Amino acid sequence: MPRGRRAALRALALLAAVPLAACARHAPPPTAEVVRRNPWLARHFDELTPPQQARVAQRMRRARPPLATTREDARLRWDAMGLEERRALLVPAGAGRSSRTAAAPRRPAEVAGGEGR
């Protein structure tokens, strides 16, 4: 095998060894994943608990420009927002996946709960 071809194959093998999760570390989690972990994001404002309502109202006040100044404004705005807007409000784009989510995939023995039995 020619020397250049061997080097190219070695380089490809090294690239294949890099886990795909390493590439996605800085990407925000998809909306479906966020809603699965926080099902209250899909509820109407009146169905939220008081702490959740306060959190939403606070995030809307702190947004630039502010999305709501009163709790009533926050209620009206929240109910009109789509899931993607709600996710963006509560999970900023700079907040990447957790280190557990972004870690390299485990070997099949670890996933099954065994240590190579």
TrEMBL record:
**InterPro entries attached to this UniProt entry:** TAT_signal (IPR006311)
Q: Kindly indicate whether the keyword Signal belongs to this entry.
A: yes
* Residue span of region Disordered: 92-117
Q: Which UniProt keywords are present, listed alphabetically? A: Signal
What residue stretch is flagged as signal peptide?
1-24
According to UniProt, the name of this protein is: DUF3106 domain-containing protein
Species for this entry: Caldovatus sediminis
